[in-house]
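Researcher: Sequence recovery benchmark, item below. Answer with residues only.
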């Protein structure tokens, strides 16, 4: 049995002729999205980190300056411990008083206020550039150093620590105040902890946002028109005339004189 020599389908032939092997594959996996805040790769690493180091250094310096104000406020607002001279003894003027605990509480309250103030100022100053790790590190380090400095400076600004000299100065029966000091060293962490919490809350609520990458299933060619000469789907194949295959004008001639790909005419059943 001889198989008739059927010509190739013109639709596939045109698609094969027009298809370009160098065209990008629409089914390839999507390329990795570019980072929104990608730094320049040129130049040494120190040159790229210089802006971040400047921001961190300025943040620490501002915190140290505000630490002086904190020391002055603490020496002024902290409750004083009254003492009285009785002969050769120094006694508490209020034995049941809680002035020592009040000094710790006042230091914590001032530290919390300074932490909120510095975090708000740093966020507003660096919001346009997107913040960064330098701001957080500068607030943490600067807040801790400023608290330690305020503790030491506040003790010097407050009443004297030499009780014997003060007792001799006021004499027998005289009253004077003891020096202020911290009984709970955890109060030194009030400033940096408050700054970190406020900075995190502000960054989460009002910080600069990065653009979301496209979904992985969209691909890099989502929404583009199909290549020339290639149908995008069954809906793009135009139907041909009656008696021919869809997309093929007139069909290909077969051995019996009728289109090879077209439907066969109905048989004559008259008579």
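Model:
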């Amino acid at each position: 049995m001889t198989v008739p020599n059927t010509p190739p389908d013109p639709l596939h032939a045109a698609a094969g002729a027009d298809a370009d092997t160098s065209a990008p594959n629409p089914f390839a996996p999507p390329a990795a999205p570019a980072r929104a805040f990608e730094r320049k790769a040129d130049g040494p690493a120190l040159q790229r980190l210089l802006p971040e180091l400047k921001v961190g250094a300025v943040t620490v310096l501002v915190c140290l300056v505000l630490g002086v104000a904190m020391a002055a406020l603490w020496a002024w607002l902290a409750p004083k411990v009254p003492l009285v001279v009785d002969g050769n003894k120094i006694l508490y003027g209020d034995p049941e008083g809680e002035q020592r605990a009040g000094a710790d509480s006042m230091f914590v309250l001032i530290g919390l206020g300074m932490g909120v103030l510095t975090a708000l100022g740093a966020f507003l100053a660096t919001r346009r550039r997107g913040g960064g790790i330098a701001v957080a590190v500068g607030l943490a380090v600067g807040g801790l150093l400023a608290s330690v400095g305020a503790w030491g400076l506040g003790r010097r600004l407050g009443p004297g620590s030499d009780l014997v000299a003060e007792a001799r100065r006021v004499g027998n029966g005289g009253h004077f105040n003891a020096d202020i000091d911290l009984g709970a060293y955890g109060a030194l962490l009030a400033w940096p902890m408050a700054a970190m919490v406020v900075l995190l809350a502000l960054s989460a609520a009002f910080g600069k946002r990065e653009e979301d990458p496209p979904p992985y299933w969209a691909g890099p060619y989502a929404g583009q028109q199909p290549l020339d000469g290639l149908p995008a789907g069954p809906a793009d194949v135009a139907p041909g005339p009656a008696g021919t295959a869809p997309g093929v004008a007139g069909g290909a001639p077969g051995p019996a004189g009728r289109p090879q790909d077209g439907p066969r005419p109905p048989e004559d059943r008259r008579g």
